[in-house]
Amino acid sequence: MRNVAIIGTGHSKFGARTDVNLQELAWEAVKQALEEANIDQKEIQYFSVGNAGMWSSENLPAIVVGEYCGLTTKGTMRVEAACASGSAALREAYLAVKSGEVDVAMAIGVEQMHQSPNPNVVEMIGRAGSYFWEFENFGLTFPGYYALYATAYMAKYGLKEEDLGKIAIKAHHYGSLNPYAHFQKEISMEEYMKSKPVAWPLKIYDSSPITDGAAAIILASEDFARKVTDSPVWIVSQGVSSGFANLSRKSDFTTIEAAREAADMAYKKAGINREDSWKVFDVAEVHDCFTIAEIIAYEDLGFARRGEGVNLARENQTYIGGRIPVNVDGGLKAKGHPIGATGVSMAVSLARQLLYRAPNKGMQVEVKNGMALAHNVGGTGHYGYVTIFSTRRPSQ
Amino acid sequence: MRNVAIIGTGHSKFGARTDVNLQELAWEAVKQALEEANIDQKEIQYFSVGNAGMWSSENLPAIVVGEYCGLTTKGTMRVEAACASGSAALREAYLAVKSGEVDVAMAIGVEQMHQSPNPNVVEMIGRAGSYFWEFENFGLTFPGYYALYATAYMAKYGLKEEDLGKIAIKAHHYGSLNPYAHFQKEISMEEYMKSKPVAWPLKIYDSSPITDGAAAIILASEDFARKVTDSPVWIVSQGVSSGFANLSRKSDFTTIEAAREAADMAYKKAGINREDSWKVFDVAEVHDCFTIAEIIAYEDLGFARRGEGVNLARENQTYIGGRIPVNVDGGLKAKGHPIGATGVSMAVSLARQLLYRAPNKGMQVEVKNGMALAHNVGGTGHYGYVTIFSTRRPSQ
């Protein structure tokens, strides 16, 4: 099969972006990606748009984005995988190039959550759980689901609130360095511990915000990539899995099976042992929709053994210079989590890290192996997407 | 690149299916496809779900469908291309197999339009046009858009209401033979001419209905297909294109550019001249959301020259035995148009036709070349998807 390379990346400022509409927001990222790749729209043969929908009254986001960004009449579709919709967009563009259907494809992720037609954000987010059964019957909200993960982890492995605080403090530290981040200020443990409870033990500072944003990435076949860049970042492998809709089917609340399975699929294709994964990657982006999710991700990805992910937080092992730097762009928690954009944003951050193009030197990791990993979860474990990137050309 | 074969097809009864929920409806099609392929769920490595969304309060249709159908923990995503969402699902599964990411994938299309959380169907359908500008400001409804096509065609080529009636009568004729169709009764020209106006010249009998339904198709690599079937139907090529969101950007209302461009892409890959296309295909499915759309499709696909599509209707040339049989399953008009299911339903009908497995002998075409075409339009020309099928193995 063909190798697929990233040849351009773009990222809008994340935040409360009511200054623009959906397509203007997308254009900020698309324009940057085209400029970075030094190509124009006519060379894009296909584009996918990650957008969760329901947060906008616009029912054809791929079409309005395509028209505004000058991508019409190229083929397109909108994809949705809940909070992993951005990774689904990346996958769709990846498959289009890898299959040989096209040579150049763009994945666009965009969400404008501040213009929701439904002001009840708790209900909106609740729909990404088990809506008809658990939300409507039991009022189980999205923070409620992750509070179940947190309390289960506390009971089994002795997690403390302060351990979650360490994740939040790290997120805000790197967010303060990232010009694209929604939140750009440091927080202290004292501020964290005093922050308003949402669903015990989760507080405001444990929770990713309601954010507007867009990210874009241009993928190309090896032949095309060779023509336009001498620094491609390759997609080595991708794993994708799904989880059950209902909590009643979950056997364990200290792991997200879909993410673990997606990681194992990606590792297998890339020839990586999960025990060694932390030695392989120079940097990783994981889905910290809530702080507890980052600790669980450490274990689901093999960065730590079961029950020991919390130690990475306690020992600051996921800062730059630690065992493995994670979410050094601020993560969902501080960079923000515009649903459809997040998965593409992860790929943008990682590609830039691998090329020493982090937007701020303070957030640039040391690149040794030239490899990076993105971990993106949809819903409360309904979707798992794991993608591995490398500066070294994969051998097919 | 790898050849991709259809190894199983499934189709639910279309209609007002308030007797089941979304996942139960999907299962009717998934079960049939698994039985036809004679494999079980564990052999499906990936599945895509075409669902337009907004017609259900369920925000994670791919997850609830996957769980109910026993497809969890396989990788998945939901795809949307307005009324071509089913073709987008087929494309996603096609790319997954063609790229070598998986050997067996299922495309599921499902929509349950009778359980919409928004009772205002006119507004709902209006959202598949240019919602914020043309619908909200000018009240342009979906039938209104297609009435513009009809009046433009009338003015330019002398189309009469009776010509549209011929399309409706054909649709209801074949619908009456199709056990899966929403409408199973013949209509007369007199009934057609007397039917209630919707947006002149379009009447109730020119319009596809609000329908619930599901369809499923199993795709496999050549190696896997050889193991499980001696009668694969191959996907020869696919063309996808997009159109502008706003009418103001359209130059011509007697053609749908995105569909025409998608057809030219598919023809080029398959080595077919558009002038000869009507000689190549034994049967075609086209997107007759309104009768006028079928006449325009004849021309966009090259079955007739510009302005002469109406003659195929007048001369009954698209009945079985005519120049080229079109929509001999009843089409969107009589079979029904459950948005996310339609594109998959087209592929199911065509694969069965090519294998002499039409559900009713009266709707079975004579198979000469073993080739068929599906034409699926999203929105009012926003998406164009054209797929070519053959019983002969494509040479790569």
UniProtKB/TrEMBL annotation, chains A, B:
Residues 245-390 form the Thiolase C-terminal domain. GO terms for molecular function: acyltransferase activity, transferring groups other than amino-acyl groups. Keywords: Isoprene biosynthesis. Residues 4-223 form the Thiolase N-terminal domain. One of its GO terms (biological process) is isoprenoid biosynthetic process. SUPFAM superfamilies: Thiolase-like. The keyword Hydrolase does not apply. Pfam families: Thiolase_C_1, Thiolase_N. The keyword Nucleus does not apply. CDD domains: SCP-x_thiolase (cd00829). This is Thiolase domain-containing protein. It comes from Acidianus brierleyi.
